[in-house]
Amino acid sequence: MLQTTTVGSFPKPAYLVKARNEFASGKISEEKLSQLEKKATEECIRLQERVGLDILVHGEMERGDMVTYFAERMKGFGISGLVRSYGNRFYRKPVVRGEVKREKPITVKTFQYAQSLTEKPVKGMLTGSYTMCDWSFNEYYPDRRELVLALAKEIHKEVVDLEKAGAEYIQIDEPAISTRPDEIELAIEAMKIVTDGIGAKTISHICYGDFRIMYPRILDLAVDQLDLEFANSDFSNLEIFKHPKFTKEIAVGVLDVHSHIIEKKDEVKENIRKALRAFPVQKVYIDPDCGLKTRTPEEAEEKLKVMVEAVIEIKEELGIE
User: Fold this and answer.
1) What average pLDDT does the structure give for the chain?
2) Is 138 helix (H, G, I), strand (E, B) or coil?
3) Which residues contact 185 (CB under 8 A, 6 or more apart)?
4) By three-state DSSP, how is residue 266 classified?
5) What is the mean pLDDT of residues 281-289?
6) What are the structural domains, with CATH classification, of the chain?
7) What is the pLDDT of residues 162-208, one digit of tens each?
8) pLDDT confidence of 209, banded at 50, 70, 90?
9) Whole-angstrom distance, CA of residue 219 vs CA of residue 208
10) What is the rounded distance in angstroms from the CA atom of residue 223 to the CA atom of residue 156?
11) Among the four 109, 138, 206, 207, which has the fewest Cβ within 10 Å?
12) Burial (Cβ within 10 Å: 0-12, 13-18, ≥19) of residue 130
């Protein structure tokens, strides 16, 4: 009960940011970049062990944009020029120009490496088919549904391979679902394909949307757990999930990842108490609202320390070992 984890991404250390830029300009080899990505991944695992998280992530040190990373490694995609995502952040938007195919595993080696560094479970991390479609240009398939379902079949292969590689937790990120609630039925249809026959615990992260429109239909997503943002919206969306009753496990975001401010422990404890008024403690996990990659390494660690300390004290209050 009240296990702690994070959503996925961590801030990249300065040496890796520099190396990624040098690789892009041809100044260092792919082998050298890979070595530094492994070093940063190990540092990320050690940070999470240091603060006492229960379920770890590898930190996504090898990834830039969460969609482009997968598109660059799948057949059928091209990559466009820079597109603004938000603020002053840009990404190279994928373009579907042919039949999409995953020709070989994309994340398995990185997962296996990260898992080899720790005895704690490490999540397998994927971007879902709906978000991949929504954040790409489609120049091949006749409509969005055809592309989403084609991607779902290919991403299912990756999920199967992650489970075979030993992943106990597999997270399928679907942030785009919250921006197009009118297509929730398509997202549900696709997720059934992605997780079909999987025995590992499956999770979907969705953030920063109007859940009033989608609830309770998001409960029909074929995953064991939903990971949702709460802190950034000051828990204003909490009441939505009380009626009808929430039926899945829930990972509750209690840290605002878009703020440089380190939360006070009492603030985080109160956030946890709010969550426990809506969800049964047996089904609640605790994590930040979203990935931590926009924070500095120091901010990420301090925020997580506060979160873990708050959970420990809440568990003591409730008599949970």
Assistant:
1) 95
2) strand
3) 217
4) helix
5) 97
6) 3-318 (3.20.20.210)
7) 999 999 999 999 999 988 889 999 999 999 999 999 999 999 999 87
8) confident
9) 17
10) 13
11) 109
12) buried
Alpha-carbon span 177 to 153, nearest angstrom: 18
Which H/E stretch holds residue 243?
none
φ, ψ of residue 198 to 5 degrees: the values are -90, 130
The predicted model scores a pTM of 0.95
What one-letter code names the amino acid at 143? D
Distance CA 249, CA 309 (A): 22
Q: Examine the pLDDT at 87 and tell me if it is beyond 70.
A: no
Q: How far apart are CA 254 and CA 303, in angstroms?
A: 10
Strand 89-101 relative to strand 124-127, pairing: unpaired
Contacts by residues 147-153 (CB-CB < 8 Å, ≥ 24 positions apart): 147/96, 147/100, 148/186, 148/187, 148/189, 148/190, 149/189, 149/190, 149/193, 150/99, 150/100, 151/100, 151/190, 152/190, 152/191, 152/193, 152/194, 153/193
Cα angle 296, 39, 51 (rounded to 5 degrees) comes to: 50
Nearest in space to 130 (alpha carbons), one of 93, 82, 178: 178
CA 159 to chain centre: 14
DSSP string, 173-226: E-GGGGG-GGGHHHHHHHHHHHTTT--SEEEEEE-SS-HHHHTTGGGGSSSSEE
Chain-centroid distance, C-alpha 72: 19
**Residue 122 carries which side chain, given as an amino acid letter?**
V
Strand order in the sheet with 137-138: 75-86, 89-101, 137-138
